[in-house]
Amino acid sequence: MTPDIDKVTTIIREVAAEEIAPRFGQLDAGDIDIKTHAQDLVTIADTEAERILTQRLTALLPGSVALGEEAAHHDAGLQGRVFADNAPIWIIDPVDGTKNFAHQRQPFRSMLALYRDGVTIAAWIVDPITGDVTVAEKGSGTFHNGKQVTVRSDVTSAASARGFLISYARDRLVKAHGHHNFFEKLSHYSCCGAEYEDIAQGNYDFCAYRTLKPWDHAPGTLLVSEAGGIARYISIDGVFRDYQANGDGPALICASSAELWDEVNTLLLPVFGKKAS
Known about the structure:
With 277 residues, the chain is of the alpha+beta class. The protein is built from nine helices and 14 strands.
């Protein structure tokens, strides 16, 4: 049984209001740390929000466990252990877009997914400042602030598509194909949650990522899929596999239509595929 969607939304909003929003623009140097490299940051807002979300969510669903980004950073074996168990899993990214948050800029989001029996069954993406929320429950659609949203399913050509791609991937795209007029518009927010929201709401049409941590993508892929889009691992050899929180692949592509996904997949093979030079 899935916990009440609105109850979970309330918990995320309350934790964000207590632990994240008051710290925006108020962080001291000692409140920010580097995890693996200069662009991979963690703040006191990340750690405190994740700690409280873990407590409240596992209490809400007895027998469940949590897989939080910060906990997984400190315990390399955590992800393998929780996915090996049969318990429902709360997948938590307390502050997605920490670099933006630490540098006093938007967007950043709190992201959450509930995973059970090999499937992501519910997802939430919340703006900690405004409280705006996009939610999805498997088989029930995607809703932004209570209103159902859908992707732009009529966009079937890359030339008319708006998407999200990081700068190095754009550069490799141009190098591989020799020109740059692939898409109508390319952006990068440094916040997966906000990008997934824009695709689910029909503002953008695709995204592509190579780093596939479950807390970055389990929530957003469900939002896009339930809004009518497609979330698959890049296909190198004609085999198509839908994204799974406990899965693996060389890269992930989400798109608003099957035709667009196929074209983006072809364009990005030299960028993200294992056979790329």
